[in-house]
UniProtKB/TrEMBL annotation:
Domain Ketoreductase: 6-180
Keywords recorded for this protein, A-Z: Oxidoreductase
SMART domains named in the record: PKS_KR
PROSITE patterns for this protein: ADH_SHORT (PS00061)
InterPro entries the record matches: KR_dom, NAD(P)-bd_dom_sf, Sc_DH/Rdtase_CS, SDR_fam
Domain of life: Eukaryota
Transmembrane helix in keyword set: no
One Gene Ontology molecular-function label: oxidoreductase activity
PANTHER family recorded: EG:BACR7A4.14 PROTEIN-RELATED, ZGC:101858
Gene Ontology annotations of biological process type: lipid metabolic process
Protein name: Ketoreductase domain-containing protein
């Protein structure tokens, strides 16, 4: 895969899948616009990417729940690079809880980040992706098609992203723009600890998952980054509207 001359915009790039994907694509010569809320972590990702090929990514500190920030993300990317070839929608947040316990405030936090912000950013990116015959890769989750106790709003948000992707594929296909989803299972990233799990709880959860997984291993962030990169590349020119599970067979 070669991304020479391609401009890739990645949200949630200060940690987890976003940071790993940024480094992976930097090795493939992509020009990167990296978005994150944590400036310190985002700049660390930028520095790692720059070491790979000597190209310094554009760092954009922003919150996709804020409309002005979303508009600024697109403006700064286009002002800097003059084009956009790939949008990687990776920003995401989770709040544990079900209908008996989750507050409306928590619902809004999850949906505004995972769905509303993603929808608005994508809508602003589309005219520029049409110009380059580019594509969109959205990070969803295997839970989009599973009922998970105490994960009601998170799973709802991910199901929405899957359907959003299918609609994008149908609507934008005639314009030469592809859209796909990557649906990871449980991966050892900091999103689990952000949900309130302590280190020993995380370790116990991971150990149980490995035992219950056909391949006997957890999916790693680098695996997800490789799949995102493949779908964003010209090698996947006939793939659109698809959701791609990557969970080591856990949910079979």
């Amino acid at each position: 895969m070669d991304f020479s001359g391609k401009v890739v915009l990645i949200t949630g790039a200060s940690s987890g899948f976003g940071a790993t994907t940024a480094v992976y694509l930097a090795k493939l010569s992509a020009k990167l616009a990296l978005v994150g809320r944590n400036e310190k972590n985002l700049l660390e990702t930028v520095a790692i990417c720059e070491k790979e090929k000597g190209f310094k990514p554009l760092a954009i500190v922003a919150d996709i729940t804020k409309e002005a920030d979303v508009e600024r993300i697109i403006k700064e990317t286009l002002d800097h690079f003059k084009q956009l070839d790939v949008l990687v929608n990776n920003s995401g947040i989770s709040k544990s809880g079900g209908i008996k316990s989750l507050t409306l405030e928590s619902y809004d936090i999850v949906m505004n980040t995972n769905v509303r912000g993603t929808f608005y950013l994508t809508s602003l990116a589309v005219p520029h992706l049409i110009k380059t015959k580019g594509n969109i890769v959205t990070v969803s989750s295997i839970t989009s098609s599973r009922s998970i106790p105490n994960m009601t709003v998170y799973t709802m948000s991910k199901a929405a992203l899957d359907q959003f992707t299918r609609n994008l594929a149908v609507e934008l296909g005639p314009d030469g723009v592809r859209a796909n989803c990557v649906n990871p299972g449980l991966v050892e990233t900091n999103i689990v600890s952000r949900m309130g799990y302590k280190d020993d709880q995380c370790n116990a959860l991971f150990e149980k998952m490995v035992k219950d997984t056909p391949l006997g291993r957890l999916t790693e962030a680098i695996d997800v980054a490789a799949l995102i990169s493949f779908l964003a590349s010209d090698l996947a020119k006939s793939i659109t509207g698809a959701t791609h599970s990557i969970d080591a067979g856990r949910y079979l």
